Amino acid sequence: MVQATEATFTNGNPEELKTQIRRLNSKAGQMKMDLHDLAEGLPTDYEKLMEVAQQTYDIFHQIDELKKQLKTLESGK
C-alpha cells in the first residue's frame, strides 16, 4: 500500500510545483487502486477500510491544494 506524503509548495517555482503534482498523481492512482482492491475483497480486511480511505482522501486533497497554488501562480504572471 502506498503512503500519502505531505506535499507543500514554498519556493514559488511553477515547474517544481508541476513535478510535485505529477508525483502525487502517480501515488494517488496507486492508492485509488488499493482502495478499490480492498473494497472488492470486503468483508475481508474491513478493518483497513477507514485508514486506506482517509489516506486516499488526503492525497487527493493535497493534489487539489497544489493545483490551486499553481493556478494562483500562473494567473499572477
Please provide a written account of the structure.
By secondary structure, the chain is mainly α. It has two helices and no strands. It has a domain at 28-75: Helix hairpin bin (Helix Hairpins, Orthogonal Bundle). 70% of the residues lie in helices and 0% in strands.
Keywords:
mainly alpha, Helix Hairpins, elongated
Quick recap:
The chain is an all-alpha fold and 77 residues long. The protein contains 2 helices and no strands. It has a domain of 48 residues: Orthogonal Bundle (Helix Hairpins).
Low-confidence stretches: none
- Residue share in β-strands: under 5%
CATH superfamily of the domain at 28-75: Helix hairpin bin
Q: Look at the helices and sheets and give the structural class.
A: mainly alpha
Topology:
Layout: H1 14-40, H2 49-75
Helix pairs in contact: 1-2
